[in-house]
Structures are given as structure tokens and as C-alpha cells.
Write a structure and sequence with these properties.
Blueprint lengths: L1 H31 L7 E7 L5 E8 L5 E12 L2 E14 L3 E8 L8 E10 L2 E11 L10 E6 L5 E6 L6 E7 L2 E7 L2 E11 L29 H4 L10 E8 L4 E10 L5 E12 L2 E14 L1
Length: 295
């Protein structure tokens, strides 16, 4: 009996060891496996004059963006030019992100280099500090430090700079829809028709005066393409698809049309046209086609 008892105890120890190892591996896998949602792999913009822009994103095993490569092709007074920008993002667990930029302004003759350090709290950025390495004279307003504040749902409700209040935006949300934001006394309003997509709409960052890719904002946070692929970092994630964005102060209206989707509901295409009113006359100043690839 004593022998059987010893054999039984030995078998139990082996089983416990195997079970513990199995649980340990499952925990490790859960830390490295991305979510079941697809990731935004590429954004393409086609402009009415033949210019293009393409952004490719690379992710780590946890689903965080670690690199963005941007290809530009644009017409500069009749001469076509091509530029390539690169931004690398380094994650320190869930506490901070550092990104290094090489932006080829001045047609690759004078690249802009800089580093941004982001503080994370509960998976959202609370502040960004800029360590300027080199700044060409015609990139204006690269501020030294920004702050981000959020509502109880985790959406951004205030954004600005720590220096002198040059940048100050107040955002208003209705459930999951960004309704408006204020720039001083001017309010920019968003319209929807209840159309949604799977996961999130990548362009909300560009038309909310937080980012700079589209070029609406004169004060630039260079290299912030990561927010297009991970908008939850600054509380701008939403799957509602806008139909119009109106800036009454500037007389500008952006219309969003021709949404297309893949079989799972991810948005794969849309068009954006911008019209500006001059003394009662309308002028189309942008007409873009966007395409999105999800993997």
C-alpha cells in the first residue's frame, strides 16, 4: 500500500507539473497574441492632380505599431517629386512610447529629425514631449509639450500645449460619435447618417485638428501617423462614418461619400471633397480618394 501511495503521489506531481506548464504557456500567449480584429496595414490617398500618399504600418506581436513608412508623390510647380518618411515607435511596456522621425522635407535635401516621448496612463497618452534634433525653418509651430484629457468613456475632450495655450481644443461626444470641437470661439461640427464600419474609421484623426497628415492644422505634431492605426491611444477611436464636417469660421465643408467595405465590414474606400465659400461662390479645394487595407 505504501508503494502504491508513493506511485500515486508521484503521478499527481507529474500531472500538476504538466498542468502548471500548460497554464503558464497560455498566459504567455495571451500577452503576445493580438486581438481578433484586423490591423490597418496600409492607407492610400489619391489626389485630383495625380499626387499620391501611401502609409504602411508594421506591428509587434502585441498589436502595437512599431514603424510607419510614408511615400509621397506630389507636383511642385510642374515638377513631380517623391519623398519617403520613416517613423519608428518604441514601446516601454504599457508606460510610454518613444518615436523617432526622419521627415524628408525640402525634397530630401534637409531631412527633419526629432524624437517624441509619450506618457501612457491606462493605455492612453496623457502628454507628449518633443526633443527637437533639427528643425527646418519652414516647419512652424512644433510645440515642445502637449497634454491630452479624456471623458469618462475614454474619448478625448481636451487637447493643448503646455507652453502658452497657443493650441487649445475642446471636444464634444455623443456616445461614440464626435459631434463637434471648438477652436477658440469657432466650432467645427460633424454630421452622420448612422452608418458604421467594423473596428474604427482611420481618417477621424486627420479631420479633428489633432493630427497633421491632411495638413489642416498649422501646429504640427510630426510623425503622429500611429494615431491613424491606433486611435484609442488618444481617445479618437470611433466606428461612426461622417457625412460632413463643417468649419463655419473658414467657410469650409468636407463631404465624405462612396464608402466601401470588405465582407467583414471593415471600411476599404471613401472619397473626401472639400469646398470653400468665397462671397457666396463655392470652390472645390480638395478631391481625394482614400483606400484602406486591413490584415
Amino acid at each position: 500500500m505504501k508503494t502504491f501511495r508513493m506511485i500515486g503521489m508521484a503521478l499527481m506531481a507529474v500531472l500538476m507539473s504538466v498542468n502548471f506548464t500548460s497554464c503558464s504557456n497560455e498566459d504567455e500567449d495571451s500577452e503576445t497574441q493580438p486581438s481578433n480584429e484586423k490591423k490597418l496595414a496600409r492607407v492610400m490617398r489619391y489626389e485630383q492632380d495625380g499626387g499620391t500618399m501611401t502609409i504602411d504600418f508594421k506591428y509587434d506581436k502585441k498589436g502595437n505599431v512599431v514603424k510607419a513608412a510614408i511615400w509621397h508623390r506630389h507636383n511642385n510647380y510642374g515638377e513631380w517629386r517623391e519623398e519617403v518618411d520613416t517613423i519608428e515607435y518604441v514601446w516601454d511596456s504599457n508606460k510610454s512610447i518613444t518615436w523617432d522621425c526622419v521627415i524628408n522635407v525640402n525634397y530630401n535635401l534637409n531631412p527633419w529629425k526629432g524624437t517624441y516621448n509619450c506618457t501612457l496612463n491606462d493605455s492612453r497618452i496623457t502628454d507628449i514631449t518633443h526633443d527637437n534634433h533639427s528643425k527646418p525653418g519652414f516647419i512652424y509651430g512644433v510645440m515642445e509639450k502637449f497634454y491630452y484629457q479624456y471623458n469618462e468613456d475614454g474619448h478625448i475632450n481636451e487637447y493643448g500645449d503646455f507652453e502658452n495655450g497657443t493650441i487649445h481644443r475642446i471636444y464634444t461626444w455623443n456616445n461614440n460619435q464626435l459631434e463637434r470641437f471648438k477652436v477658440g470661439s469657432n466650432a467645427i461640427t460633424f454630421s452622420y447618417n448612422n452608418q458604421t464600419c467594423k473596428s474604427f474609421f482611420p481618417l477621424l484623426i486627420d479631420y479633428s485638428y489633432i493630427g497633421f497628415w491632411y495638413g489642416m492644422e498649422e501646429w504640427q505634431l510630426v510623425g503622429d501617423y500611429i494615431f491613424m492605426a491606433q486611435p484609442e491611444l488618444i481617445g479618437i477611436r470611433s466606428n461612426s462614418l461622417p457625412t460632413k464636417i463643417i468649419n463655419n469660421d473658414l467657410g469650409e465643408t468636407y463631404s465624405f461619400n462612396d464608402y466601401d467595405f470588405d465582407s467583414e465590414g471593415y471600411v476599404t474606400r471613401c472619397t473626401v471633397s472639400g469646398e470653400k465659400q468665397y462671397d457666396g461662390y463655392g470652390d472645390i479645394f480638395c478631391n481625394y480618394i482614400y483606400k484602406f487595407i486591413w490584415e
